[in-house]
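dumping this here before i forget
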Amino acid sequence: MTEEMIIAGFGGQGVLSMGKILAYSGIMEDKEVTWFPSYGPEMRGGTANVTVILSDSRISSPIVQEFDTAIILNQQSMDKFESAVKPGGILLYDPNGVLTPPTRNDINIFKVEGTKTAIEMGNPKVFNMIVFGSYLKVRPILSLDNVEKGLEKSLPKRYHKLIPLNLEAIKKGRKLSGFALTKAIMNGEDLDQDQLISTVDREKNLNISYKSKPKLQEIDKFYITEDPIEEEKWSKIP
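structure:
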């Protein structure tokens, strides 16, 4: 297993911290890891991104041009990195900072309301952990126990009192991942129930609520719940 990913957004959004937690969690999982940040001189508001690679085998270079996964937190990063996701790869984004949603039809796209959910939790600062939790739902390559150890390793001891809050946000995020848009849906094709279920990655063990005949303009009506998939039990969103 090798996961090559980029996390990108503004400085101050916790981009580098998210990458560092991911990297330390990978180390706790006995994986080979690289963490390669890139950022401007601004303390806040400048662009920032970090490339993280997790692998079961030795990593030849921390620098890659294409990614298995991209986590995007602002429009500038979307414009720059959407095209860098490998065909069949994953793109997660928080719509709060993205005005123009991704348009590719050869990747799996997940919309995660991280900022909105963090505000509802009463702490907007944990929105990056909500997004991180959604990533772990989509790509369950790390155990929650090792993520907790990764938090302990990456955060200074004076901030260890915040670990329970961060774990709560991660768990919340695991319940929020938006439906992976398939090529058929992105092309605006009508899908009936039998066709729609065939688009589900059964290995992800997810349950979907849906409205019939999904169109591109209706993508916000797709959600994934935390319950295991039951093919005979489909529910429609009111």
